[in-house]
Amino acid sequence: MLRALIALILTLSFLSTASAQSANAPDRSATGGAQTLEDIMARQSGEAVDNSFRSDATGDASQAADITNQLGTLGGNSDPELWRALRFGSADITASNTGPAATVLIQDGGMSWLKFRSGPLATYGGALLMGMIALLAAFFMYRGRIKIDGEKTGRKITRFKAIERFGHWLLSGSFILLGLTGLISLFGRKFLIPTFGHDAFSFIAVGSKWVHNNVSWAFMLALGMIFVMWVAENIPHRSDINWLRKGGGIFSKGHPPAKKFNAGQKLIFWSVIVLGLSISVSGLSLLFPFELNMFAATFAKVNATGIGGLLGFGELRETLAPHEEMQYSQLWHSIVSFVLMAIIIAHIYIGTVGMEGAYDAMGSGEVEEQWAREHHSLWVEEVLGEEVVVAKPVRAVKAPASKAAKATAAKAAKTPAAKAVKAPAAKVAKAPAAKVAKAPAVKAAKVPAVKAAKVPAAKTTKAAAAKPKKVAAAKPKKTPPVK
Amino acid sequence: MKIMFAAFLAIAVVAVGANLILKQAGFSSQERTSGAAVRLDN
Questions:
Q1: Long-range pairs for A419-422 at CB < 8 Å and ≥24 separation?
Q2: Which one of B3, B9, B39 makes the best mutation probe of the A interface by having the most chain A beta carbons within 10 Å?
Q3: Average pLDDT of span A36-45
Q4: pTM over 0.80
């Protein structure tokens, strides 16, 4: 009986303790049952803390916050599943910026693009440009400057009108700016940052981007101008075959006949038009991101034709992420630009240091008649309305005095003066000086494009008589054009 | 040479003009790709 009484007393005392404890339990509703600030402060001040509310809170799914709750768990999902959704673009993302790319947080195609851009594109693109420069340097050392073979006449022929030269310089100036700023964008990280530092490169890169984006309009405008102005004269002609067969006379003496534009220039023209157009379209795609997607549609057409299989590409992807469209546009833009830059470097070379007399065509627009006869004989025929005989030049200066007279006579037969009077070579040499002297003036009056050599008859007469080899050269340098 | 420099001047005019026109037409990156909650100006 006594034992039963003691057990009852003890049980009641435990119950009262438990009751006191539950009455003193802090309210943790604000933290969802987790620790409160009081719990933390008590622990830090060394007070005894009842951690049962934590140690017991395991394994009870019903205690977890709902998955729609901000602090809720992922429910049956796991973190890897979330990352996979991000990785494959299926996650439900809300972003404060807009556009198709805003909600794509991981774009796995970007890595292969980045590797190609900083790898093969930069390496082979740079090698192409450096290789072209080296090739031209080697050619210059081998061939030297391509000189005007014959004696200069001093007469000029209008080759390009002001509007044509304006279009050319608009295109060339904008292309050089676009090329340089494009190279800065591609190679800046690799070469400019190590040299100039991040701050300086930041300034260069921002400016470079502005120039590249906005100067592009001048390029596109000029491309249209050039096409309209020159397309008719760049349509292939049968003389182009002969010109190409003889390599344009680059490695030999003499020049094959050519119209206003020879086959080499036509190749440059069509390269500029086709590649320039391609660069412009891919550039527009980059200028207005995600609005001008071309590659998925192009790949679908390539797959339909089966070209991809023939070239070993297999089936190309017909569904591309927004970023991938931009990445393909960027790569295409760069690759085609590298090819056009290499071509234009060669064009700049031949138009400046590579060939005597060529720059005048775009400088003043007036070219030396002899240059025109040698390089564009068929065009000169059209302009002057005469037949041009293309023959090897005679080096009269180096010939002995007696030979020089014969040589000059032969040359005189080819000059406009001699042709005007239709005299055989021998007759020209023996002809009265006055007859020869009149010839240029008569001819000039008939041919608007030729600048007349206004030499006093007596002066030319003396020159022709005393120094026959100077017949072609005895002309004034600066003469007004006869229109 | 005058023609060449005139063309170079035209490049500058076209570039500045294109930039102004595109901005006025609402084609800046800021306007095209950012929402009201994004502040890029300050």
A1: A419/A386, A419/A443
A2: B3
A3: 90
A4: no
Local structure of residue B40 (DSSP, 8 states): -
Scan residues 1-40 of B and list those with Cβ closer than 8 Å to A: 1, 3-4, 6-8, 10-11, 14-16, 18-19, 27, 32-35, 37-38
Question: In angstroms, rounded to a whole number, what is the distance separating the alpha carbons of residues A223 and A266?
Answer: 15
- For residue A453, how many other CB atoms are within 10 A of its CB? 22
- Token pair 């003389």 is found at A239
Residues of chain A with CATH 1.20.950.20: 123-363
Write out the two tokens for B2: 């005058």
**Three-state SS at A450:** strand
Between CA A83 and CA A77 the distance in angstroms is 11
Contact (Cβ atoms closer than 8 angstroms) between residue A54 and residue A60: no
- Radius of gyration of chain A from its Cα atoms, rounded to whole angstroms: 42
A387 Cβ contact partners less than 8 Å away, ≥ 6 residues apart: A381
Q: How far B42 CA lies from chain A's nearest CA (Å)?
A: 16
Chain A interface residues (partner B, CB cutoff 8 A): 96-99, 101-102, 162, 165-170, 173-174, 177, 210-211, 213-215, 217-218, 221, 288-289, 362-363, 365
At residue A107, does pLDDT exceed 60? yes
Interface contact A96-B15, CB threshold 8 A:
no
User: pLDDT digits over A217-238, tens only?
Assistant: 999 999 999 999 999 999 998 8
Could you give the angle at which helices A193-230 and A263-287 cross, rounded to 10 degrees? 120
A221–B14 CB contact, under 8 Å = yes
Q: Who's near B13: CB < 8 A, 6+ residues apart? A: none
Q: Is the ipTM of this complex over 0.85?
A: yes
Average pLDDT, chain A: 77
Residue A156, classed as helix, strand or coil, is strand
Closest CA to A176 of A351, A353, A340: A340
CA pair distance A377, A255, nearest whole angstrom: 9
In the CATH hierarchy, which fold is given to the domain comprising A123-363?
A: Fumarate Reductase Cytochrome B subunit (1.20.950)
For tokens 């309209």, the residue is A228
**Tens-digit pLDDT profile for residues A122-147:** 999 999 999 999 999 999 999 888 88
- pLDDT of residue A83 exceeding 70, the answer is yes
d(CA A445, CA A143): 39
Within A231-294, residue ranges assigned H as helices are: 238-245, 263-287
Q: Provide the sign of the torsion angle of the four alpha carbons A329, A264, B10, A177, taken in this order.
A: positive
State residue A362's pLDDT score: 92
Residue A12 reports pLDDT greater than 60: no
The residues that bridge with A451 in the sheet, in sequence order, are A481
Half-sphere exposure of A261 (CA within 13 A, CB side): 18
